[in-house]
Structures are given as structure tokens and as C-alpha cells.
Specification:
Rossmann fold, GMP Synthetase, Chain A, domain 3, 25 strands, 9-stranded mixed sheet, 7-stranded mixed sheet, globular, alpha/beta
Length: about 550
Amino acid sequence: MLGLMQNHPLMISGLLDFAARYHGDTEIVSRRVEGDVHRTTYAEVQQRASQCANALDALGLAAQDRVGTLAWNGYRHFELYYAASGSERILHTLNPRLHPEQIAWIINHADDRMVCFDLTFAPIAKAVAAHCPGVKHWVALCEADALPADLAEAIPGVLSYDALLAAQPARYAWPVFDENTASSLCYTSGTTGNPKGVLYSHRSTVLHAYAAALPDVMNLSARDSVLPVVPMFHVNAWGIPYAAALTGAKLVFPGPALDGKSLFELMRDEGVTLAAGVPTVWLGLLNFMRDNKVRIPTLQRTVIGGSAAAPAMIRAFEEELGIHVLHAWGMTEMSPLGTLCSLKNKHLALDKASQFAIQVKQGRPIFGVDVRVVDGNGADLPWDGKSTGNLLVRGPWIASDYYRSEAPSPLQDGWFPTGDVVTIDADGYIQITDRTKDVIKSGGEWISSIELENIAMAHPAVAMAACIARPDPKWDERPLLVVVKREGSTLDRDELLKFYEGKVAKWMIPDDVVFVPAIPLGATGKMLKNRLRAELTAPQAASPQA
């Protein structure tokens, strides 16, 4: 017997319709590439998204055609999120931090029919346009009179986004179709091999938005002012553009200005209560606030994900600045949220040190995400907080395969292998000890590069640290620490290695330290350890392990 409930498909367009109807005057604030701060509302975004959808129709884009974007976090990009997916096209967010050749490869692999770009990325558009014959329309996200003359010469027929919209009516009948229809496309960052496309659906996206807003996740509401520092070209800004509309939260978009000073001023001026981003971005904000002895009085919490946040950073936000850190974990293939760290009721009576030991973990799975930890043979390991193994996941917003992939499905008996090495405790809290490719195997024992990085980051003279495996003729691999010192620091190798004493077993202490002016970062702000290994490692004379 079936339930007697109405059957309405979950549509991304429904999120914007809801926000416009019940939170129509709530602000969407954007720092634009033009340099000014732009203000609009959910009601106005709905109108312009409708104009944009009408423009897509007028340009002849068919259902399921891919609409690429090369854009910062801003209101125009936000409009495209809803116009493309809502009109049954597929929004394809392109990562402008990739090499132009790789961007061209992704555009062609996705078979994009339109690419919309901020003027910041006009050089990229000009560099790749001739190599992307499938793209029928190149659209600059600007007003008609702001189109540079040399851009029109380099890309014949380039269009102005605002001019396109101005010619269209502000009403659009959003189509209703199967909720499992593809809605958006995001490629992995591709540090090894070609990037892989992850194709989301309307159903998966709306369910993910519901989960993101839950109290034990981002705890979003209409009383929040949310600033996603995480780019809208990186896993759809962790779903915040959808979850904010679902709850009616104010959105504050930082545009291209992601330095500590710019972020601080925007958060302060717009009363931001929640912000989200990767650790490298928060390091810049933390240093600015420390150096200038300032705080953001409204900022209550920040979500840190993308890579593990050092305990020293979490402690600094909590104790120095009064900002609660929500440690999170996920991946492109998971839309991306998998876990978020919030305490249970029974933890509230614990002392601060015990609470902090939980808080530095990546957190508990949210409803919709099922997890397993297995050994090398695929056998389940106990959830005891000690047994280390490979993390597998499954759920309604987790990929079953890659877009246009010629390889077999990555699933293992219906479970997606994440590539993360973890422990899970009895309460379901996950602690990522390393990525499979980054863990260091020394004398048959595993050493967590993340644990060694966290210790280094706790030293007051260290600005950033990465730990990589260096080949060793006796022990197979030994840890090498790569460090960026704080400005003016006189920290040396011996002082830093001594800092490890008593914090880990002696044999785990790195063999050496290399001080560098900067650690290379990937397209999503993660440290490029593969590049460090290529540049800094070579077989060494046998090192003492004990």
C-alpha cells in the first residue's frame, strides 16, 4: 500500500521560488570584480534568474546542454546557478585556478555549449576559446559598456550578460521534470591524471541542502548572514548557495578579494554570523585579526574543510577570537558534505580539554551519509577510535560513477572508496589520519603526515607546514617536514625538531626540515604534496628509526 501523499519532485528552482516568496527582501551582497559592493535581494535574483533562463532559451540552448562558468562568488554567478539548472540545463562550474590547457580539456570533455566568465578571467577565456569549438556562446559577466574592445576582437561574438538579461522578460515558467535529472557538473581538481566529472541531480542537490542546514551541521536559519569563502567553482560552494535559499539566510559574496583584510572588513560590515572555507584562507584572516588586535563581533562560527585544520588554528579561533569552529569533511564526489563535528549532549559535561579532543576530529556522518572503515582486504574494522583503515561511503548525494568515464565504476559493492585513511570511534566521530597517497610507511609502520603537520603548526614561528614521505634505503620512507616560517622568525631545524619531543614517538619525528618561502597550493587551496615530493625528495642514506 502506498502512502496518500502528493508527489512533487524536488527541484532546484523551488529553492529560489521559496526564498523569493518568503524572504524576498533578504539581501544578497557581493563585492564585485568592478571593485564596488553590490546589493540585491532574493526577489530580484528570482527576476534576473528568470531573465537569464529566457536568454538561454533565446540562444537556442537545449535541455541538458552544459552552461560553463568561470566566475567568483557573486550575484551573477548565483543567478546562473538557478537559471541554468532551473531551466533543465546543466550548470558546469569551471575552476579558473587550473592551467588553461586543463580548462580547455574540461570544457571539451563536458561539451559545454556556453561559457560565462568574470572579466577577471577574460585572459583565460581568450586563451581557450579557439580550442573549444563546441562552445557556441561566450558571455562576459558585465554590463554592455564594460566589454573591453580587445575582448570582442579576441572572441568574436562575445556577449554581455547584463545586456542579454535586459532584453528578456522577468517571468519564467520553470519546467517540472524528473528530480533525478542532472543539474550541475563539477570536476575534481585533477592533481593526478585528468580531472573527473561529478554529475549532480536536482534530487541530490535539494537533499544535500536540507542536510547542510541541520542544527548539527551548519545550523542555518533566516537569522544568519553567511559568507562562503569557499568558491562557487569548488563543489558548488559546499552547497551554501542552495542551503541559504532553503532557509532564507542572507548571503555575502566576497568576489575576488580573499585576503585577510578584505574578508575581515566585509564580515564586519555585513554582520556575518557564519563563514566557510579551507584552512589556508582562514590562516590569512587569523593572522590579520591577530596582528591588528580586532574581532568580528557577529561572527559566531566558521566551517573549516577541504583539508584538515590544525588543532592550533582551531584553538586560536576558539580561545583568542571567540569563534566556534565546525570541522568538516567531504569531497567533490559527495556534493560535498560527509561529516561535521558538533558535540553531543553527553559531551557538554566534559572538561574543555576533552571537548577539544573531539572537536579536532572531522565529525559525525550527517543523515544521508553511511560510512564504513575497512582493512586492505575489505573487511570491516571496529569503531574503537584506534583501528585505522580505508573509508567507504554511500548515500543519496554520493556519486555512483564519473561523467563520461571510460573506466569501470569506482564503487565497491555499492560503496564509494574515498581514499582517506581514518579511525571511527564508538560515537561515529571520524578522525582522518591521512590520505592514502600521503601516509608515510616507515619500517612497516604507518606515520600520519597530518599529525606531524599539526604539531609543526602549533609552533608559534610556523606559518604553514607540510609533511611528505622521503624514500629511505632502510626504512622505505621517512618523514620530511616542509615549513614556511612566520615573517621575522629565526626558527631553525634543530629547534623545530626538538619541539616534537614528547609529542610523538621518537621514531615518528621527521628526519629533517626544509624551510621554503611558500608551499604550493592546488586549485582548491590544498597543499600540493605531489609537487613537494617531486621537488624535494630523493633517496637518502639510511636514517635512524629508533
